[in-house]
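Hey, I was hoping to borrow your eyes for a little while. For a while now I've been wondering how a particular protein folds. The fold is given in discrete form, as structure tokens running alongside the sequence. Could you read through the record and tell me how the tokens relate to the sequence? Take your time with it, there's no hurry, and the full record follows here:
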Amino acid sequence: MTILNSTAEQRDRANATAVAAMLESDPALVDVLPALEALPGMTRNTILTSGAPLAWSEYAGGQRRAILGAALYEGLARTAEEADALLHSGEIVVRACHDYACVGSVTGVTSASMPVWVVEDAASGRRGHCLVYEGSDRERLTYGVWNAKVHRRLLWIREVLAPRLAAAVRSAGGVRVNPIIRRALGMGDDLHSRNTAATAVLFHHLFGPIIDVNGYDEATREVLAFLSQNDLFFLHVGMATGKCIAEAAVGTPHSSIVTAMALSEKEFAIRVAGTGERWFRAGIPALDAKLFDGITADDIAFMGGESLITETVGLGGLAAAAAFSLQDYSGGTAEGMVETTKAMYGITHAEHPLWKIPFLGFRGVPFGIDASLVAATGVTPRIHMGASLREGGHAGAGLLIAPEEPFREALAVLEGRAVA
């Protein structure tokens, strides 16, 4: 273990440097590519998944089902039993999305032929990636379901949706993301649990290019319908954007700025800029969720998730005061959302100069979560996230309060103090 012995003064300077680098990012949506082509180090027999890395034998439940489903989808095995044996032997490997410049929603499962959004910083060329959204059907691979219906939808995304999106994005010369996020916050999105406005704005940008490049045939009509009917479509663009932005701070010596927050089915984990790719882990706290009709707390279980990258860059729960309409989807009150965002200013290093919240007098969203401030105040990030059915599927959404331990452990390592 590297002992850094960072002082408070060193940490303050480093944090200013890390946050400045993140704020200088000018991310643009530039392409849609198969994961094998887009992700550095990706191989045909690699399956990526959410959270800090675990051994294959430690995965269970929906996250395990999704990984097995991806192996079958890629033709790496003929049966789930064969896939399991190949995963145990290492002929199929499971890796963490974050180690491949990628983030994944819920189970996060990403395999070689699955198409991913490519978001690139205009100045540095740094990239972030995330799967193209699978749709709003409650049964999805990302929610731990593998069946014939899910398989057909994944093939349609790969063979119909992704090529037409890629052609449109390239034809448009890319789409800058900061202006979309700015507009969406002003229209009631938090950019995590609510992406209705952001999806509409992206649709506005891509509608003409989709038709111009692909023609107005039946497949194009299907693509336009899919975009118009899935309010969360922009979420995965936003996640790739968050990864692209956060990576700007990674490796800043002495910095306690959080560069990743992620869930597996078993753990909550974070990374901070000054310790690079090291994960700091804790158990998963309770999710206070508003569930769909007929579903109870006994029906749900964690399956992982990395949409928390939105909170990592000041959106989602940190921007709760922008999205009062979430009361109808994930619960809570307008007053509670305002208090949540106000509390987040106490654990962040800056306010975003472009992403602003109208209700707070166009104050910038809280930006740059600082593990040292979390440790000092005991206030942890508030996270908007979806709930999963134990047997697979979407169950609702709610608020998760991150545990303190990983932030305290990260600070201890930065300061050169012993950790258990």
Observations:
- The CA atoms of residues 91 and 189 lie 43 Å apart.
- Residues 148-171 form the longest helix (24 residues).
- Residues 8-20+251-414 form a domain with the v583 fold fold (CATH 3.90.1700.10).
